[in-house]
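Dear colleague,

As promised, here are the two records you asked about, laid out in our usual form so they can be pasted straight into your sheet.

NAME FIELD: protein one
SEQUENCE, THEN STRUCTURE:
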Amino acid sequence: MTAPDGRPEDAPAAPRRVDPVGAELARVEAALAARWPESKIVPTTARIRSLLELLGNPQATYPVIHLTGTNGKTSTARMVDALLRAFGVRVGRMTSPHLVSVTERIAVDGEAIAAEEFVRSYDELAPYLHLVDQGQDVPLVYFEVLTAMGYAAFADAPVEVAVVEVGLGGRWDATNVADGQVSVITPVEYDHTALLGGTLAEIATEKAGIIKPAATAILAAQPPEVLPVLLAQAAEVGASVARQGLEFGVADRRIGVGGQQLRLRGLAGEYDEVFLPLHGAFQAQNAACALAAVEAFFGRGGSTGRLDPELVREGFAAVRSPGRLEVVRTAPTVLLDAAHNPAGMTATAAAVGEAFGFRRLVAVVATLADKDVRGMLVALEPVVDEVVVTENRSYRRLPADELAAIAVAVFGAGRVTVELRLDDAIEAAIRLAEEGGTNHPLGGAGVLVTGSVVTAGEARTLLGAR
C-alpha cells in the first residue's frame, strides 16, 4: 500500500520544508506589531529624533524629496523615483502603507529591499530601540521604527537621494525629522479628521509642516482655503514655491491604450509625447507634480533649460503603481484600487468611466471603520451597477453588516450583496458581472475591488498579482 504522495504507507512522513527567511521576517513583523500601530498617534518627533541621533542621523547624509497630501502621495513618489532613476540617480523610496509585504515600504533602485535585508536592518536597530524606549513615557511606535529602518537602509546602500512619503499629516510625522530639499504637497482633502483637524485649513497646517527653510515647495492644485496656508508656511521659512496651474501643469491629455498620452508644462519648458501607463486625470496631475519636483531637485527652471525630454519619457513610461486602478485579471476585467476617502473615490469613479467604458460594473467594497464610508459609496454609486460589501482583515475594519446598512441607504437593497469574506465577495462579483455583462470587446463586464489599501492588498494576494 502506498500513501497519496507515493510513499509506502508505513514510511515516515517527509520532513516539512522550512523557510528560514520567511520565519525571520515573521519574527520581525511580530516585534513591530507589538508596538503601537501607526493609526495611534502621539504628536511628537522626540522619540524618532533620539533614535536617529544614536544612529548618527542617517537622514542627513543624502538629499530628500518629501511628499505629503491627502491622495496621490504614493503614485507621485513612484513617478519621482522612476524619473530620477531614468537620469541615472540611485534612489531610495519610502512609502506607506504597504499592499502585501511590509518590505515594500523601503525600496532602493526601484525594488523593495529583500526580506533578509529588512530583517538585518531591524536587528541592527533593536539594541537602540531598547535604549530609546527606556527613556520615554511611550515606547517607539510601529511607524517610527520603520522610518528609522528606511533612513538607515538608505545611508547603508548608499543612495543619492531619498524620496519619502509622509505617513500621516506632516508636522509631527516621523519622516519629518529629515529636511526636504524639495517638498511636494498633493491635493489636501478631508481624511483623518480626528487626528489632523476638522477643517481643510487645519489639515493643511499640519501638512505644511514639511516645507523647510530654503526648500522648493511643489504645490498641486488645492482647494481655496488650503493654498493660503501653504503659501504662508513657505513665506515664513523662506521657501520658494511652484504652483500647479501657474508655474507648471498638464498642457494636454489624451486617453491611450493602457494609459494616457500627456504634454506636460514643467518649470523649465514643455515635454510632449509623454506616455504614462496609469489611468485617470488625477494621475496626469500627479505626473505634473512629479516632473516639477525632479526639475526643482536638479535646479532646473526659468532660463536653466529643460531636462532631457527622452529621459523624461523613459522615466514616465516605466512608472508602475500597484493597487491604483490596477488590472489583475481579464474576462471579466478585475481592477484593484486603494481609494479610501471620498475625494479618492470620486477620482477613481471618474477614471473608471473614462478609461474602461464598462457596460456593467460590479464593485467589491471593504473599508476601515474610521473612514467616511457613506461619502465613498455616494461617489462610487453613479458608475456601479451593483455592489458586494465585505470585510478585510484589518483590526480597524468596518463589519460587513454595518457596511451593508450604509450601502443599502445609498444603492438600494436590490443592488447590494453581502459576503463576509473577501474571496467570496470577489467570486460573487465576478459571477454578477458575467451574468449581466456582455462579451463586447470594448465594453464588457468589470469588477472593481476598492475601499482601502488593505482591501486592495489582500485582493492582490488572492488574485495572484505580482
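NAME FIELD: protein two
SEQUENCE, THEN STRUCTURE:
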Amino acid sequence: MLQLKGIHHIAIIASDYGQSKRFYTEVLGFAIVRETYREERDSYKLDLSLNGCYTIELFSFPEYVPRPTQPEALGLRHLAFAVENLDTAVLHLQEVGVSTEPIRLDTLTGKRFVFFTDPDGLPLELYEG
C-alpha cells in the first residue's frame, strides 16, 4: 500500500489573480509564503499557508478552461475549512461582502456547516467543530 504522509497542497487556478489573492489572504486569512512570477508561462504562483500548514497554491494563467463548480459536479466537490464558531465566521464573511448559503446541520455528526464560493465560484465550506 502507498504510504501517504498527508496532503501537500491544494492548487487553484484563478481567473482574476489579484481578486483571488485578496480573497484568500484578506478575507480567509491565509498567509503569503512566497509569490513567484514565471515569465516563461506568464503566470504567477502564490504559496499560501494557514497556521503554518495546508498550503494552497494559487495560480494565474493567461488562458484557462472554465469548468463546472457546483458542489455535485464531477471532480473536486468542495474545499472545507474548520472553524471554532460558525456564526462568527459567517458574520465576518457577510461583513466583507461574501454571500453564504443558509447554515446546514450534518445529520451524521451533528455539526453545523455552510457553503460559499471564492471569486471564481469554487465551492468552499466552513465546518464548525
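A couple of things worth noting about protein two: The chain has two helices and eight strands. The radius of gyration is 16 Å.

Best,
R.
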